[in-house]
């Protein structure tokens, strides 16, 4: 599911700062290529033992991904349930507890990226 009104769509940052902030909040940059990067945060539901991923897509506005000075902007934010062995189901129902946690992380991210 796309998280509408995440508050971070369109925010710009250089790669070095974005990587630092994302790491502080528990995100990992798993996928990247010449003009985009994806950051994931794994969230676990203790009751159902399901895992969910909060995924933030970014795209390069200027520079190249290899450069810490490249400017990236945040695109869409997704959340979905992890599926075995490597997938994410974006149509799965997301528990309220997980959505609340995801919303909190997005709010923290917004503050850190707009300081």
Automatic annotation (TrEMBL):
<dbReference type="InterPro" id="IPR036491">
    <property type="entry name" value="YugN-like_sf"/>
</dbReference>
<protein>
    <submittedName>
        <fullName>YugN family protein</fullName>
    </submittedName>
</protein>
<dbReference type="InterPro" id="IPR014967">
    <property type="entry name" value="Uncharacterised_YugN-like"/>
</dbReference>
<dbReference type="Pfam" id="PF08868">
    <property type="entry name" value="YugN"/>
</dbReference>
């Amino acid at each position: 599911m796309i998280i509408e009104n995440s508050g971070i769509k369109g925010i710009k940052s250089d790669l070095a700062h974005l990587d630092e902030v994302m790491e502080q909040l528990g995100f990992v940059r798993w996928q990247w290529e010449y003009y985009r990067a994806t950051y994931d945060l794994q969230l676990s539901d203790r009751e159902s033992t399901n895992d969910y991923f909060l995924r933030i897509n970014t795209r390069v506005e200027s520079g190249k991904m290899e450069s810490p000075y490249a400017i990236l902007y945040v695109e869409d934010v997704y959340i979905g349930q992890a599926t075995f062995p490597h997938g994410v189901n974006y149509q799965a129902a997301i528990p309220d507890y997980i959505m609340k946690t995801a919303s909190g992380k997005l709010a923290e991210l917004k503050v850190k990226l707009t300081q």
